[in-house]
Fold this protein.
Amino acid sequence: MRSTPGVRSATISYTTPLSFTDSKCAAVDRTGRPQRAGSNAVTPGYFTTMRIPLVRGREFEATDRAGSPPVVILNETLARRYWPHEDPIGKTVWLGCDVTRPRIKAEVTGVAKDAKYGSLDEQPQPFVYSPLAQDWVGFVALIVETPGDPGTFTAGLRAIMRGLDPNLRVYEVRTLEEYAADSLWKVRWQASLLGAFGLLALVLAAVGLYGVVAYTVAQRTQEIGVRMAMGVQRADVLWMVLGRGLRLTALGIAIGLVLSAASTRMLGSLLYGLSPLDPVAFAAAALGWTAAAMLASYLPARRATRVDPVTALRWE
């Protein structure tokens, strides 16, 4: 794949980032209690292809094959957990979850930066990489980086795989963007639910404001008739009614902004790539409420401009 025209880089791993994660058990000594960490088996060039920098040590090499001494690469979170004030390169970890069976002794040859393994909104978690040649599994993921649209490369990729071996089954071809979108399903569902409640609150507030303004117009019908009989223009009556609705809205927006800013800590875990105090979001919400208030107040205001002064005076 690396020698195929249109391919920038290629690598093989057991799991694809943002799809699912495997796990291993690791301990710093043979008799210590193992701790579970996410894991992946990869080939040389994986960290270069996936743009995961190594902060210490080296990447896997072709010499890290079956029969050679086992090696692993840890991420920063796991390295800090085991050796918070030491250089982990050259240290030993023991792999295996069953304390009654012999564990695999592996040397730490590198430390990689923390990455996102299961979803984009996950917190940093311990992770260990092993060479695929030393940790073979039943199926693997071929990760290919192309300069253009990945979809245009799918047919050629399948043809290359059939040419290598017709028994090789390519059962799924997806882009990393699709994996990233799928990993956020929970956040999207929560955002949709909150958005639905927010829309319901907007509708209820607009209906309530409409009722208040309409009631006020009904109570001031005689006053409006007198004003119009004295020469007040319809536009002035319109803005008089709209102004009352906007004053109520401004008070509600001010209170809502204060309460929203105070409750940002509860919503921080639901946000990705957005500050809880994002000024654009707050400004957009305020403008949305103002627009809804204008619409809710316009209908009673328009009705007020159609008051017949003679009829209003007769009521008086």
